[in-house]
């Protein structure tokens, strides 16, 4: 059911760093046609960091760990978004399936990959408990011995509530050379992190010690290189527009991202590309360490 590319198997045998990447970003995170280039740029960034990329998706009745360019190009907006609960059904039904952070972590657990890079983690949605929407990413992270490198949590979420839930789940929230959790597009203003780390080696040592204690996942928040500090009003407008149009569930994130990209004149789109590549390179460096 799970097919791991030979390069990744060899890297694991050799003790080299391997970094998992999701396919939801490719299929649903960017305008049509652009997601593939972002995915390929993420893979190059992992290699630049000294590790091997392992992009995860479901194709032709198999969970693939490691995709060719031709395979990656198949992930368009028709792909199902796959969390941990959805993997088996997608395999049996031979559906095209793009993995979320949670879905990718479930596969990481099965094949022994300890590092993952993404843009933003899912979490507690604004207005909770109405709607009672909490991403499966959080439970998957708590249960999986993996370090996820992201620019905090997704910008449309309730960041303080997500941070509190991560504490409840026992997930360390580390800051990459920062004292606060990045707010995705903005570098500052988030809740305090549980520890600040200064180097890839230090992050790797903390992760190893955490796992040797029998614990699960960790989150490392890397601030964006260029902070956009004026996006919050646009996020509020986007969420209001989604509610007015009856958009809910898994469709909210792509709707909001499209709204932000359009109304910001493309600034959020460029920032999203940059932070994903930056997170992938850092993940490559930590996995190599």
A few lines on this structure:
This protein is α/β, with parallel strands linked by helices and 289 residues long. The chain has twelve helices and eleven strands. Strands 1, 2, 3, 4, 5, 6, 7, 8, 9, 10 and 11 form an eleven-stranded mixed β-sheet that branches.
Rg, nearest Å:
17 Å
**Largest β sheet strand count, sense and barrel closure:** 11 strands, mixed
Structural class: alpha/beta
CATH topology: Indigoidine synthase fold
Tally of discrete structural domains: 1
- The sequence of SSEs as H and E is EHEHHEEHEHEHEHEHEEHEHHH
CATH superfamily: Indigoidine synthase domain
Oligomer type: single chain
**C-alpha end-to-end distance:** 31 Å
CATH architecture: 3-Layer(aba) Sandwich
- What is the class in the CATH system? Alpha Beta
Please estimate the helix content: 40-55%
Beta content: 5-15%
Structure in words:
With 289 residues, this protein is of the alpha/beta class. It has one domain (2-288): Indigoidine synthase domain (Indigoidine synthase fold, 3-Layer(aba) Sandwich), CATH 3.40.1790. The protein has helices spanning 6-14, 24-28, 35-48, 69-72, 87-92, 101-111, 136-143, 159-168, 200-212, 232-244, 252-263, 267-288; strands spanning 2-4, 18-21, 52-59, 62-65, 80-82, 97-99, 115-117, 147-150, 173-176, 195-197, 218-221. The protein is globular.
List its salient traits.
single chain, eleven-stranded mixed beta sheet, Indigoidine synthase fold, 289 residues, alpha/beta, 15% strand, 44% helix, globular
Topology:
Layout (H helix, E strand, L loop, with lengths): L1 E3 L1 H9 L3 E4 L2 H5 L6 H14 L3 E8 L2 E4 L3 H4 L7 E3 L4 H6 L4 E3 L1 H11 L3 E3 L18 H8 L3 E4 L8 H10 L4 E4 L18 E3 L2 H13 L5 E4 L10 H13 L7 H12 L3 H22 L1
Parallel strand pairs: 1-4, 2-3, 2-7, 5-6, 7-8, 8-11, 9-10, 9-11
Antiparallel strand pairs: 3-4, 3-6
Helix pairs in contact: 3-12, 6-7, 9-12, 10-11
């Amino acid at each position: 059911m799970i097919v791991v590319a030979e390069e990744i198997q060899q890297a694991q045998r050799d003790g080299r760093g391997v970094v998992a990447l999701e396919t939801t970003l490719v299929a649903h995170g960017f305008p049509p046609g652009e997601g593939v280039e972002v995915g390929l740029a993420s893979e190059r960034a992992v290699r630049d960091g000294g590790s091997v990329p392992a992009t995860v998706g479901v194709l032709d009745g198999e969970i693939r760990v490691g995709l060719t360019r031709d395979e990656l190009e198949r992930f368009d907006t028709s792909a199902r978004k796959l969390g941990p609960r959805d993997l088996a059904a997608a395999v049996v039904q031979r559906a095209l399936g793009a993995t979320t952070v949670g879905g990718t972590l479930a596969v990481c657990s099965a094949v022994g990959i300890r590092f993952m890079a993404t843009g933003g983690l899912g979490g507690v949605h604004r207005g909770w408990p109405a709607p009672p929407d909490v991403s499966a990413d959080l439970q998957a992270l708590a249960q999986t011995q993996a370090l996820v490198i992201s620019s905090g949590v997704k910008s449309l979420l309730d960041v303080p509530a997500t941070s509190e839930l991560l504490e409840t789940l026992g997930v360390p929230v580390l800051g990459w050379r920062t004292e606060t959790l990045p707010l995705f597009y903005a570098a500052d203003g988030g809740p305090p992190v549980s520890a600040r780390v200064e180097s890839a080696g230090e992050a790797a040592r903390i992760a190893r010690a955490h796992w040797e204690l029998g614990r699960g996942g960790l989150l490392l928040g890397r601030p964006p290189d260029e902070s956009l500090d004026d996006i919050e009003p646009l996020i509020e407008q986007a969420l209001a527009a989604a509610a007015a149009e009856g958009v809910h569930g898994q469709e909210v994130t792509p709707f909001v991202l499209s709204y932000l990209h359009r109304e910001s004149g493309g600034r959020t789109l460029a920032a999203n590309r940059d932070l994903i590549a930056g997170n992938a390179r850092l993940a490559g460096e930590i996995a190599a360490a």
